Amino acid sequence: MKTYEEMTESILQKTEKRRAKLARRKRLLSLFAAVAAVVIVMTAIPVGALIIANRANQPAEIPDAELTVSTAQTESFTAENSDNTKTEYSVSIRNVTSSAVKESGVLHGSREVDIAFWTHSGGVEYGDGGKWHRITASVYNNYSPDADRYQADIVVTDGSKELYHITDNGTADVTEEYIFTYIECEIFIPDDMEYGEIYLYFNITGHDAGPKADYTDSPYRTLSVNFFQKYGAKIVRYGTDVLPYDREALSEAFDGGIRNTVYNAIEQLYYINNDIKRGSLPDDEKERETVLTSRQRYIDFLTAYKAENEEEYAGIVAEFCENEPERYDSAGNLTDKPLMRHDPLEDAADGER
Amino acid sequence: MDQGARLYQEYLSGDKEALAELVRLYRDGLILYVNGITCDMHEAEDICEETFVSLVFKKPRFGQHCSFHTWLYGIARNLAYDVMRRKKRSAETPLDENTPDTVSVEDAFIKSEAKKRLHKALGKLPPDKYELIWLTYFENMSAKEVAAVTGKSEGAVFTALTRARAELKEILLREGFDNEDL
What we know:
Number of helices of chain B: 9
Largest sheet of chain B: none
Number of strands of chain A: 11
Strand content of chain B: under 5%
CATH class of chain B: Mainly Alpha
CATH topology of chain B: Butyryl-CoA Dehydrogenase, subunit A, domain 3
Number of helices of chain A: 8
CATH architecture of chain B: Up-down Bundle
Structural class of chain A: alpha+beta
Distance between the termini of chain A: 59 Å
Radius of gyration of chain A: 27 Å
Largest sheet of chain A: 6 strands, antiparallel
Oligomer: heterodimer
Strand content of chain A: 15-25%
CATH superfamily of chain B: PhyR, sigma-like (SL) domain
Radius of gyration of chain B: 16 Å
């Protein structure tokens, strides 16, 4: 173990090395840009001559507006459909943020931000009312060795209010010169909802090593994909009113969709019921109230699910009883605690009577 | 402005000694906290050092929306989980708790003998529970601060903390603490 002084010294030395490495990279990048410029000019002269020669023999054309390249936002879509097939579609943005970033004075326009965003159907089927879609957003931020922290959010709305909001914060290794991350969430899209929006926000915080060095939050890059309308897919609100912003529950839904969410809710309710029985709820009134509010949300959620899916619900309860966490000690060994055979939802109702 | 924020500001203004003071102030707690995530004392030390390198190299702006303490632990936690993701190490690895290094850092950071015994028991908890207990009882963070460091909601912190406490209590009872000690 280093002493405090040794660690401080080591921190300063590592920093110096990284600064030197960064400076070398910037010089290389400038050299590369200069070489590229020469190549472009040398290629453009004969191509330009060819175009001029060609045009001389053709009538004038109306310029194609689509050829006007905007660096503000470029979206490219691949395939998508709204039936039950597993077709993927994607949306990508390149150089979306050049102008905004330049204005912020944090990251320069030369830095490229690639955002690839896709989702695929074929997730967990849920009755006839719709199905779960997994949304994955990957963010690749190139040539930004000094942009080292990020926040990525996926927000799903029905056009007026948020239905889901998933956030991911992280750091990037400066030595790797890029930020790559992905976040994902799962949304339930019912058949009777015809409009919705997905936004991807990506916020980078970086440090410009130049003379105007400043550390500040760069503006969110926003990708608004009206994919429901565009591709005819539909979104439903089922479930969103009961666990609307519970990131934990949503993140735990990744692998098993609604089933996992229900399993998780049963487990949480079971724990809280047990805490009540043992009198081990938090002493602090505010904490206790928060726990009890959560409990009510689980009860509401499970009651709604059970009313529509009694058989499936019984199956999930049976599975939970079999795996009931408290049958195992902290080392993971099965104890002689008897197998629970009842539904935590009924347990909750008993407690209230 | 809290002490950490003041020292960081002084460092950014060119006072090198302020960095040494920040290291003295936060190093041991950070290492013990990160050790709960990585289960490897040497890696925890590297991550702690890397946390300070991040401050010095990138000079991130401290927004003062939380305390410096909370902010610093958030950075260290992100780094630790990045490392864990890269290495895909099992979170079930027992905590590295009996090395001479661990003992010396523990001695420097934890003054009370009862708390040292508690810390040893804490090593038997899974990392997610370890960090909640550590931040709450050894770093004296509020639920709001713990939520800020771990990225959970306050409600999730409360419920998870209740469970972590119950599990810790079982461990302590097995290890000879009696109910009155608890």
